[in-house]
Each structure stands twice: as structure tokens, then as C-alpha cells.
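Q: Hi! First time doing this. I have a protein sequence and I read that you can turn it into a structure. Is that right? Here it is:
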Amino acid sequence: MKKSSKILAVLMAALMLLSSLAVSAFAATDSKESAEKTKTGKYVEWSWNEKTGTATFNGIVKSKRASLKTKVIPNKIKHGQTVTKIGKQGFQGCKKLKKIVVKCKKAPKVTKGAFKGLGKKIVVVATNMSAKQFKLLKKNFKKAGFKGTFKRK
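A: Yes, that's right. Below is the predicted 3D structure, encoded as C-alpha cells:
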């Protein structure tokens, strides 16, 4: 009798452990999917998080990369989220790009590789940005591999 009750207790404990792992894994994936949304517009792709109110510029649509000469990064996107990051493929393949206008109040973080394949003649113009944030913008862009020049208006 003692042996069977011990085996039963071990099986119950294992069952409880496995069921709690499955529930926590399901809860983690479910909350992530509902928080992060992605939208591909006419020219660009954005992703945003409604809980934190932040947005990421993921890149320019492939069909428009070759012909785009100027790109504006707004302070907020259509959905009201503040732009805080430029993704890994942000400006890849934009061979004719000459000017990037950043209208953010705070310098966005930039993922390494966002400027892969771009030349040195590109100008980044920052508007609505303090001197401290402009300095941080330059640091973030250079860290990500940007080789062009900067202007502040």
C-alpha cells in the first residue's frame, strides 16, 4: 500500500509540473502576439506595441527601395505610437537614397545593419531634437554603420 501511494504521489507531482509549464508557455506566446502588431503600408513597414506605445521602422517595401531619394522618420506613426527604433533592414537596398529626415523628439535606437549597402553621400537631417538627443542620434547611427553626414535644424 505504501509503495503504490508513493508512486501515485510522484505521478501527480509530475503531472502538475508538466501542466503548469504548458500553461505558462501558452500565456507567454499569447501575450506577445497580442502586444506586437505589424503593418505594411504603401512604402514602408512598421511594427508597434500598443502596451508600451512604441513603434519600430522595419524598412522600405522592396518595390520602392531602388527609387526612393528621401525618407522621413516621423515622431509618431498613424496609430499614435512614438517611433523609438529603426530595425535591421531599415534602409537596406535603397541605392538612390540621399536624405533621411528624422522628426523624432528623442533619438531612436538603430539596429546594426540598418544602413547596409548605402553610400557615404547620405545626409541625416534632424528636426525637433535637442542638442543632447542629436548627439545621441549621431552615436546610434554611427554604431549601426552609417557613414554619411548629419545636420540639425
